């Protein structure tokens, strides 16, 4: 199993939007407040977060499709279909939104939104959008939607280009480990 070279492998171009220390500090704060994270920019709410309150006993469990960011926008607003159809990370638009499993997904076009509605499991990122390399190591780290790979028809995000390169070096083993670790870590987060 190998990633296709070029754009499909999702090379990171540019620098993260926040320093790494800030990302982890914001991620820890979001998790402590009962929220969840999906990537570096998702850890920064667009408006002040409400005071933390205990989750309702009858609240439905988060979908494995994507544990939502504090503002519940899947993969930081990037269009999940664009990775497959356009072979690039592309921001979606508020004009083309769809809510699925309590997460708002944004798309670059009505056609992409229709494709997702027809087959959401095909386009959702693996491991809830968390870093594939971190997941393979039994850890949760935010996935960066600009650091991605599509392998065997599945979308994987990684926290950084360095993590992605490590993950690609032993991809079969890391995917196997990630597939074992994801249900355990997801269950632990739900507790």
Give a verbal description of the structure.
- By secondary structure, this protein is α+β, with helices and mostly antiparallel strands.
- 34% of the residues lie in helices and 14% in strands.
- The radius of gyration is 16 Å and the shape is globular.
- The N and C termini lie far apart (35 Å).
- The relative contact order is 0.16.
The structural class is: alpha+beta
In terms of quaternary structure, what is this? single chain
Average residue pLDDT = 75
Q: What order do the helices and strands follow?
A: HHEEHHHEEHH
Number of strands: 4
Percentage of residues in helical conformation: 25-40%
- Spatial order of strands in the largest sheet: 1-2
Largest sheet: 2 strands, antiparallel
Net shape: globular
| Tally of helical segments | 7
Radius of gyration: 16 Å
Percent in strands: 5-15%
Spans of at least 5 consecutive residues with low confidence:
4-65
Our measurement of the CA-to-CA distance between the termini, rounded to an integer number of angstroms, reads 35 Å
């Amino acid at each position: 199993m190998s990633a296709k070279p070029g754009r499909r492998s999702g090379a990171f171009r540019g620098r993260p939007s926040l320093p790494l220390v800030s990302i982890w500090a914001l991620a820890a704060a979001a998790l402590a407040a009962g929220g969840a994270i999906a990537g570096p920019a998702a850890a920064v709410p667009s408006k002040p977060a409400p005071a933390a309150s205990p989750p309702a006993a009858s609240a439905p469990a988060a979908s494995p499709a994507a544990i939502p960011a504090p503002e519940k926008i899947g993969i930081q607003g990037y269009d999940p279909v664009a990775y497959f159809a356009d072979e690039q990370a592309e921001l979606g638009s508020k004009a083309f939104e769809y809510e699925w499993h309590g997460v708002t997904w944004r798309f670059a076009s009505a056609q992409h939104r229709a494709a997702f509605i027809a087959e959401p499991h095909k386009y959702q990122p693996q491991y809830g959008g968390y870093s594939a390399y971190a997941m393979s190591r039994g850890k949760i780290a935010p996935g960066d939607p600009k650091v991605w790979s599509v392998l065997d028809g599945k979308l994987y995000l990684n926290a950084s280009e360095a993590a992605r390169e490590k993950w690609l070096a032993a991809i079969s083993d890391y995917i196997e480990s990630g597939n074992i670790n994801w249900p355990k870590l997801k269950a632990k987060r739900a507790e």
